[in-house]
Write a structure and sequence with these properties.
Elements (H helix, E strand, L loop, with lengths): L1 H16 L11 E9 L5 E4 L4 H10 L3 E18 L6 E13 L3 H4 L4 E4 L10 E5 H8 L8 E4 L3 E9 L12 E4 L3 H4 L1 H9 L8 E7 L4 H17 L6 E7 L15 H28 L5 H9 L4 H38 L7 H27 L3 H5 L8 H37 L9 E5 L6 H12 L4 E7 L9 E3 L1 E3 L9 E5 L4 H5 L3 E4 L10 E5 H6 L12 E4 L5 E9 L14 E4 L7 E6 L4 H15 L8 E2 H7 L2 H35 L1 H9 L4 H35 L10 H27 L3 H7 L1
Parallel strand pairs: 4-9, 6-8, 16-21, 18-20
Antiparallel strand pairs: 1-2, 1-10, 1-11, 3-4, 3-7, 3-10, 5-8, 6-9, 7-8, 12-22, 12-23, 13-22, 14-16, 15-19, 17-20, 18-21, 19-20
Helix pairs in contact: 1-8, 1-10, 8-11, 8-13, 8-19, 10-11, 13-19, 13-21, 13-22, 14-17, 19-22, 20-23, 21-22
């Protein structure tokens, strides 16, 4: 069990460590990232950077070999005509399409099935597709020259087919559209995209391939001068630097998938399970020394040396470890599909696992077998033949006690960590976010939806039975990414804090049940710009009451410095996941930026309601696919990483408890055998079953309680450090540790007490006669 769990954890850790390591020159690839320094001393971290910075660096720095651009696209509705004159098939693609320049395939390694990597993305309205997506669209990966239509507007010709992306990459798409296509498809953003030094978005990724690793510092040292020349007095706010490719998967500041400390914790869990199993083996081997005393004495009398007996027991340990390894590998093969489904991964046994097991096997044999082999090989022949062994002397008992305490300390740590992580994840999912998230579906709007179409869609959807309200917005509250910028209040200078910008229409408050504290809601009919602000904004602007802000002027940098008026103040709510504190937030209507329809529906009959919404949607947008997700499910996905780690540690804890209990059960069984004569004499002299059970159990309970005392402060320190990563977190109450201690003591008593009672109720006449 210990080896099997370590295999799974090894697969999980090595899978994450392998991300994007397979690219040629991976050590020389860097992404330009942005640190936006705010006047109040805080820093906003963004994985994106302005395209013009990469272009300028490439022109001026000979150390840069290639520059790759990946401009990610949110979603497309793709229409495909499989056969000439046939029906158009519609597909909705979300977060798997991007614009890329031609050098992208020079920087990153892809397997080309057809097409020319040097010219595939040089012309507008061309694209490179993965084989899997080609088969989905055309039924074959022979897609060169085929046409796909995006959002019923843009015809794109396929010029290359790639082998499907590997799972261990953060830099991928299924359809790469040529970067020159931006001009025809999004002419309004083409100029700022290429020329604006402040056009920064997490969707704009610029990668540099350097000539060697030493060039990183040279390139970074030249960036401040370029930024100073371009942004002048604003340059101090923008700090750009190079992020190594190997850091992208792990750096949470720039949207990394998992942190290395979490992988370290999982590695320690694997080591802990092996430690617990190894301690069991050592304890059992040394405790059963009395049963092998005559064998050892006989071997020594017949000429065996201590060295020979030592290697005999090492060999026996090797046989046990080899059998355990084979069974663990078999169980891993059998249960890996279930585990992959459980963890939503694609782990697989590979050559590195066999190398890992070979090294692990050698370590286990000597780590677990060395001490018992030394103890047993040192028996004196005369004492061994007389069954006089030192298994009960003080030093032996102390060694065994230390091992039991160590074993249960590790198990206790895992139990406490599992309990706290479980409660924290549950807290994150059920915390009051300050808005309603239940029974709300988020449906992506077709690109460039006309205002008239939106009004028509609203009227039609509102007429569907079971629909309570519909709001058009850029994103829901608590979205992982939002817009933002600084503000000017009442003609004062720009504030030294950033305001989180939420774009939503006049129904945003009603749909998400946001509380209006003062003023009024934004209006659909007003032509002037109107803003709603939250309480945190009042605090930052030093406005004492909500009523005092109403009617004052506000300029938002995120809305092209357009002047507006504060018309209302809403109660604070979480505009981002619970990793961060509630930020100053404004809400404004900007129809050009609407990306979603948020539809609040009744809790009952949701399947039929959504079906009716789908029919209505298809009538308004016949060329687009209706897709949706429930908002509460989206929010739960923010904490998917914590939930996955919790599952792994929880499984490890269960295994740790089980292995510990098996060890204690085996140990008490052997000790009961060793003390058979003592138990018989005590019963003859009048000792009760309860007395003997307590006699055999109390030492184990003491050791387990010592383990609890040792593990509790360590667990508190570890989990306190982990909880610091959340702005909103649970308090670690004393009862969590008391409950864990009580549960551990109960499990120990059940494990040990069962065998102790069996020994206590045995017939003393039989034990004394045998003796």
């Amino acid at each position: 069990m210990g080896i099997g769990c370590s295999i799974i954890l090894f697969l999980f850790i090595s899978y994450h460590l392998s991300f994007d390591r397979y690219h040629n020159n991976a050590t020389n690839i860097y992404r330009i990232v942005t640190d936006l320094h705010i006047g109040d001393g805080s820093v906003d971290y963004d994985e994106g950077s302005p395209l013009i910075l990469g272009q300028t660096l490439k022109q001026q720095m000979p150390q840069i070999v290639k520059e790759a651009v990946l401009f990610k696209k949110r979603s497309f509705t793709v229409s495909v005509q499989k056969n000439k004159g046939g029906k158009q098939n519609l597909f909705y693609e979300n977060e798997n399409m991007a614009f890329a320049n031609n050098e992208f395939f020079d920087v990153f390694a892809y397997n080309w099935l057809s097409g020319n990597a040097q010219t595939a993305l040089t012309r507008p309205n061309t694209a490179v597709i993965t084989a899997g997506l080609a088969r989905k669209y055309f039924g074959t990966d022979d897609a060169i020259g085929r046409i796909v239509r995006l959002d019923n507007k843009y015809d794109i010709a396929i010029t290359g087919v790639l082998q499907d992306n590997t799972r261990n990459t953060d830099i991928s798409a299924d359809l790469y559209i040529s970067l020159p296509s931006v001009k025809g498809m999004y002419f309004d953003i083409e100029k700022p995209l290429y020329n604006d030094w402040q056009f920064i978005s997490s969707k704009n990724n610029v990668f540099l391939l350097l000539d060697n690793e030493r060039s990183k510092s040279v390139v970074e040292n030249n960036i401040p001068a370029l930024v100073k020349r371009a942004l002048k007095q604003d340059a101090a706010q923008y700090v750009f630097h190079l992020q190594p490719l190997a850091d992208i998967h792990f750096n949470s500041r720039y949207n990394g998938a998992i942190s290395k400390p979490l992988l370290t914790i999982l590695a320690l869990v694997g080591i802990a399970l092996l430690l617990i199993a190894g301690v069991n083996f050592v304890n059992m081997a040394t405790a059963q020394s009395i049963t092998r005393a005559k064998e050892i004495g006989t071997r020594k009398v017949l000429g065996s040396s201590p060295n020979g007996i030592f290697w005999q027991f090492i060999a026996e340990t090797a046989y046990v470890a080899l059998a355990a390894t084979a069974l663990a590998l078999l169980l891993t093969f059998l249960f890996l599909p279930t585990l992959n489904s459980w963890l939503q991964l694609s782990l697989a046994i590979n050559r590195s696992v066999y190398l890992f097991l070979a090294v692990l096997f050698i370590i286990l044999v000597f780590a677990a077998g060395f001490y018992p082999a030394v103890v047993l090989s040192r028996f004196k022949p005369v004492n061994a033949l007389k069954n006089i062994v030192n298994s009960s002397n003080p030093s032996s008992k102390l060694s065994r006690g230390i091992l039991i305490v160590s074993q249960n300390t590790v198990a206790q740590l895992l139990i406490v960590c599992t309990l706290i992580i479980t409660i924290q994840v549950k807290f994150l999912k059920n915390a009051d976010m300050g808005f309603s998230k239940d029974a709300i579906i988020m449906a992506p709007l077709p690109q460039d939806s006309a205002k008239a179409n939106l009004a028509y869609l609203r009227n039609r959807v509102n007429n569907v039975a079971g629909v309570k309200s519909i709001s058009f917005c850029y994103s829901p509250p608590a979205a992982p990414t939002n817009k933002g910028g600084s503000v000017r209040y009442d003609g004062k200078p720009w504030e030294n804090f950033t305001e989180n910008s939420i774009i939503g229409d006049e129904n945003y408050l009603a749909t998400f049940d946001l509380k209006l504290l003062a003023g009024r809601n934004i209006s659909a009919t007003d032509t002037t710009t109107q803003y709603l602000i939250n309480q945190q904004t009042l605090l930052k602007l030093d406005i004492k009451t909500p009523e005092r802000a109403i009617g004052h002027k506000l300029i938002a940098g995120d809305f092209s410095d357009k002047p507006g008026t504060i018309v209302g103040v809403v109660k604070d709510f979480h505009s981002r996941p619970l990793y961060a504190h509630i930020e100053p937030t404004l809400i404004a209507a900007q129809p050009n930026y609407y990306r979603y329809a948020a539809i609040k529906i009744d809790r009952s009959g949701q399947h039929d309601i959504i079906g009716n919404i789908r029919q209505t949607w298809q009538k308004v947008y016949p060329q687009n696919v209706f897709e949706y997700r429930f908002l509460d499910q989206q929010i739960n996905d923010f904490y998917q990483k914590e939930e996955m780690i919790n599952k792994l540690i929880e499984a490890g804890s269960i295994v740790a408890i089980l292995i510990s209990c098996l060890g204690l059960l085996g140990l008490i069984s052997l000790i009961a055998v060793q003390r058979t004569k003592e138990i018989g004499i005590r019963k003859v002299l009048g000792a009760s079953v309860a007395n003997i059970t307590l006699l055999l159990s109390k030492d184990f309970l003491k050791l387990v309680l010592i383990a609890v005392a040792v593990a509790s402060p360590i667990a508190w320190w570890v989990m306190n450090k982990w909880l610091q990563g959340f702005a909103y977190r649970i308090d670690m109450q004393w009862w969590l540790f008391a409950l864990t201690a009580a549960a551990t003591a109960l499990i120990t008593f059940i494990s040990v007490g069962y065998r102790a009672i069996s020994a206590a109720i045995s017939n003393p006449v039989d034990s004394l006669r045998n003796e």
